[in-house]
Amino acid sequence: MESALLAPPHLLLTNVILPGMNGIELAATIRRVYPDCKVLFFTGRASSYALAAPAAHAGGRFAVLNKHLPPQALLDLVARHLDPASEMPAVA
């Protein structure tokens, strides 16, 4: 979080499950300071989708990705989400 204060992020790519603060809380904190920051969550657990759903219903626009995403697909998603003309998908 401290590094985000030094250089405003355009995109947060984080795991849903983290030690201490989870990725949903981290994203909410970042988005309070930088509301235009896009968020991509990674998860390897189906239960993580349930964690992200309330954030989406509260106005968050987040994409939740499976950890087994091929590297080129991840790069394509990052490029698409950083494109100002692209819409971020809501949590599925």
Shape: globular
The CATH fourth-level homologous superfamily: Response regulator
What is the mean pLDDT? 76
CATH topology: Rossmann fold
**What radius of gyration results from the CA coordinates?**
12 Å
How much helical structure, as a percent, in the residues?
A: 40-55%
Number of strands: 3
The fraction of residues assigned to DSSP E strands is 15-25%
- Sheet with the most strands: spatial strand order: 1-2-3
CATH architecture descriptor name: 3-Layer(aba) Sandwich
CATH class: Alpha Beta
Alpha carbon gap, first and last residue: 26 Å
Q: What order do the SSEs take from the amino end to the carboxyl end, as H and E?
A: HEHEHEH
Count, helices: 4
Note poorly predicted spans.
none
Q: Main attributes?
A:
single chain, 92 residues, alpha/beta, Rossmann fold, 42% helix
What does this protein look like?
- This protein has helices at 2-6, 23-33, 47-57, 71-82; strands at residues 11-15, 38-43, 62-66.
- The protein has 92 residues and is α/β, with parallel strands linked by helices.
- The chain has a three-stranded parallel β-sheet.
- The model has no long low-confidence stretch (mean pLDDT 76).
Topology of helices and strands:
Blueprint: H1 2-6, E1 11-15, H2 23-33, E2 38-43, H3 47-57, E3 62-66, H4 71-82
Parallel strand pairs: 1-2, 2-3
